[in-house]
Each structure stands twice: as C-alpha cells, then as structure tokens.
Amino acid sequence: MRRRRAVSFAMIAAHAVTWVLLIVITAPVLVVLAGAFFNTSFLGLASEQWATGNDRTFLTSSWFGYVFHIYGGSLAFSLGLAFLCVGACILISVPAAYAIVRTHSLRSRMLEELALLPLSVPGIAMSIGLIQAYSIVRGQWWLILCGHLLYTMPLMMRVLTSALRSSETARLEVAAESLGASWRQRFLFVVIPNLRHSIIVGSLLVFAISWGEFNVSFLLNTPLHQTFPAALYATYTGNSFAVSSAATTIFLAVVVPALLALQWIGGGEFTRLEQPA
Amino acid sequence: MRGLLLSLPLALMIGLLLLYPLTTLFWGSVASAGAISIHSYIELFRDDYYRTALLHSFLLSAVVAFISTFLCLAPAWLFANEEFAGKRLVRALYTLPMSFSGIIVGFLAVIMLGRIGVVPQLFEKATGSNYLSGSAYQLVGLVLAYLYFEIPRATLTLESALRKFDPQLSLAARSLGAGITQRIRLVILPLIWRPLVSTFAVTLTVSLGSFGVALIISKRFSLLPLEIYRAITGYGNKSMMAAMAITLVLLAFIINYSVRNWTLGATEKA
Q: What are phi and psi for residue B36, nearest 5 degrees?
C-alpha cells in the first residue's frame, strides 16, 4: 500500500511540473496577444498614439496599422527572403540529397556531414565570419539570403536524405530502369514525385526558420534592406509595449500556422521547427 | 560523375558560405602583423574582462542545461508513457518557444519580469509590494529566459529517449524485491543516464551560442556572444573578436561531437 502511494505521488508531481511549465510557456504569449489587440491606453500615453488617432474602443487593430505603416517594407523584404530561400533550398537540395544517398563514397558522406555542420555553428560566429569574408559586398541584400541558406539548407537536406533512405524509391527506380527509363526520366518521374511530401515538409521548415532567423538577419542587415527580425528588435528597443506586441503577433501569425501544418502533415523525425536561439 | 555534378551547387555553397568564412575567421584570430601568433587566445584566458565573459557564458549555460534537463523529465515522461486529456495540445504548446528567436524570448522576459512587468504588477495587486520588479535584467531573469527556450528542446530530446524505456523493467525489479533506491540505481539510471547527458549537452550548446536573449535583457552580465557583438559594433579589437568566435565554435563542436560519438559507441556496444 505504501509503495503504491509513492508511485502515485511521483505521478502527481510530474503532472504538477508539467502544468506549471505549460503556464510559464503560454502566459507571456497570451500577454503579447492581449497587448496587440486590446486598447492599452489605460497603461499611459504612448508616443505612437498620433498614428492611431483617438481610438476609444476596447479592441483595436490600430497598432497593426502602425507596424505595417512603419515596418511594412521590412515585412515584405523578409517574406520575399523566405520564399527565395525555399526555392533555392529545393533547387540545390533535391539533386544533392539524391546524389548523396545514391553514391556510397567517402566524398558523399563527407559532403553530407558538412551540409549539416551549420546547425552546430553558433549564429553570431557564423555571421561575423560572413561579414569578415565578404566585407566587399556587405550591404547587398543577397548576402542575407546566403546566410539564411546556410541555416535552412541542413533542415531540407535532413528531411530529404532520411526520406530517400527509408522509402521505396530505390526499388521503384530499378523497376523503371528495367523498363527502359533513362536517368533523366527516373529522376523527374520517379524520384521527385516520391519526394513530394518531404519537399513540402522541408519547405515549411525552411520558410519558418528564414522568417524568424535573427543572427544573420540582424548583423548583416542594413538600413536599406531591413529584415523583419531587425524591425522586431527596433520595436523592442524603441516602441511602446503595444506596438512591440503587435509586431510580435505578426511574427507569430506566420510561424504558428507553419508549426500547425508541420504537426498535421509531418510525422518524420526531422520535422521540429527549431530556431537558433 | 553524375553524382558529382548534382551535388556541385551544394558543395560550392558549403565551400563559399561555410568553410571560407570560418577559415577567414580563424585566420583573423591568429594572424597579427603578418606573423602567426596565438596571442589573442592567450589574452582570452588571461585578461580578466574576457575570461569573465567566457566563464559567465559557460556557467550560465551549464546551470540552465542542468535545471532544464531535470525539470523536463516530468513532461517528457508524461508525453512518452502516459495518456491524459489534451495531451496533443499540451505537447504542441510545449514546442512553441522552440520556434522563437532569442530576441523574442528576451522581449517576453521583459513583459513578464521587467520593471513594470506582469508578474511584479500582480504581486503588487496581491501583496502591496512589487516583488521581482526588474528581475528580467538581473541574473534570475537571464536564467529564466534561457530556461524558456531550453524547456521544449530538453522535453522533446528526453521524450524520444524515454519512449524506448520499458516501465515493465522497473516493475519486474520491484516484484523481485528491489526497493525504490535499488531500482533507481540499478535499473532506471543505467537506462536513462545517457539520454540525460546528451540532453544536457544539447541544451548546453544551444545556450552557449544564444545571442538574442542577452542582447535584449543583459545589462551588466557579460557573456561571450555579447562581447563578440560589442567588438563588431565598435571599440573591440578584431583579432580578439575572431578568437572569441572561434572559441565559441570550437566549444560547440567539441561538446556536440564527443557526445554524439559517445552515444553512438553505446548503441554499437549494446
């Protein structure tokens, strides 16, 4: 009898810790959402109030208007970067992952290791490496894209190589070959259709990571090409709580759907949406 | 030959964007006035200012990794082995902070624990004095903010390890007469201490490299990534900055690869 009570005590403790941690995780996010949608003028005057007018309603979207007005350009720039990143990752990773999985050589194994290496390089170190190596072209918008590629490519590669290793694609390919399909036909009509699911998963990861990535986006950022994460930093250091919250909510509005979509269609082992902190 | 051609863009990208910048960085840390010297690295460990930053980074990361590993055993165990109402939703919410970059976590810390943060305000309503006001900018706040982004990482890493753990083993030991301490020492710990150590290592390296959180909330507490940032934005010297960055990279590599080899070796032996 005593032992059973000890076990159930452990269970109660585990539940207690889990629920407390859940509150700790969700409470700040709820406060941000509240700050973005509710009229928080009761907290005092904010310098941005001129932009929002004399809005006395309890629910307001005027903070969003302010953010779109001031930081709309960086929002569009970051979204564009994320889309370009997805495209480039697909174009580079699909053939490379295929080549790496199909050739069993030291060289291909090394290439795979190297492709995953950026995941363990701290973002700040990588950013100043890029700055020092490419100081001549610093300020070009595509240097930011290059940095994003470095951190998103490994995610796409991981999803694709694990799919290629576990799926039936190799056998289907042999079958296609025995039926006379050329290499190009096999790649286009057997391999790529079989990778469709993984490409979608990888693209979601790449998009969300590129959208939220801070280190490269902030350190390689210039006033002419401001990224949204850099704009977020600007709101945190220069704007009121309500505007910062609205900007953060815009960030969440892109990331959370990606997260949900990954939960819904994912299922593989490499579908974690993990932003370098 | 065809394989080479297909992976050429990736190889080019790795060479140009990863290896070349890292080499430049390394070269910058050892080259001084045309000669090669490890002066910057000696300085890094000798000079009080930089040594403090290095030590702070390591200690903060170790403390946070330790706390998160043990705290997250609870949710990881529930997610892996128990069923309860709303488990899917709870688990999904747990993964949310992992998608935030450091500055967002820093901002959340300020909202909750800043000078007029939500928590001190609630305390003031309830007790009359605003406990924890401004604690976001102190060490407590830094630890809590780092914990915030480590909780999901630790939970998910432990969860996948605990899935493989069979509760029947512990029950069998109990039916053979083993007490709770014996079971923990002889059955449970030997099975889960490797995942514990690798979770510790994962969280440690993430914390070591984290930059955004400290950028927002660290006022006086110096950390290696912050010193690198200060050096690049102004007065620091370039070779010192490169040396700090290389040290950070090497630390992350050494921890990552030694733990990986160690866990791989364990699975081969088993």
A: -100, 125
CA atoms within 13 A on the CB side of A110: 7
Distance (Å, whole) CA B124 – CA B131: 7
Radius of gyration of chain B (CA): 23
Give the chain A residue whose CA is nearest to the CA of B84. Answer: A15
Q: Which of A228, A234, A246, A254 is nearest to A33 (CA)?
A: A246
For residues B40-64, b (16+ Cβ closer than 10 Å) or e, as one string?
bbebbeeeeebeebbebbbebbebb
Contacts across the A-B interface (CB distance below 8 Å): 240
pLDDT tens-digit readout, B85-140: 888 899 989 999 999 999 999 999 999 998 888 899 888 888 888 888 888 899 99
Q: What is the DSSP letter of A182?
A: -
Contact B7 A100 (CB under 8 A): yes
Helical pair B2-13 and A106-116, crossing angle rounded to 10 deg: 30
Name the CA dihedral angle for B121, B127, B128, B129, rounded to a multiple of 10 degrees: -70
Please give, rounded to a whole number of angstroms, the shortest distance from the CA of B60 to a CA of chain A: 15
- Whole-angstrom Cα distance, residue B171 to residue B99? 38
Q: Which residue spans within B8-160 are E strands per DSSP?
A: 31-32, 35-36
Q: State the ipTM, two decimals.
A: 0.89
Confirm if B241 and B134 have CB atoms less than 8 A apart: no
Chain B residues close to A212, C-beta within 8 Å: 99-101, 104
Contact B25/A28, CB-based, under 8 Å? no
* SS3 category, B217: helix
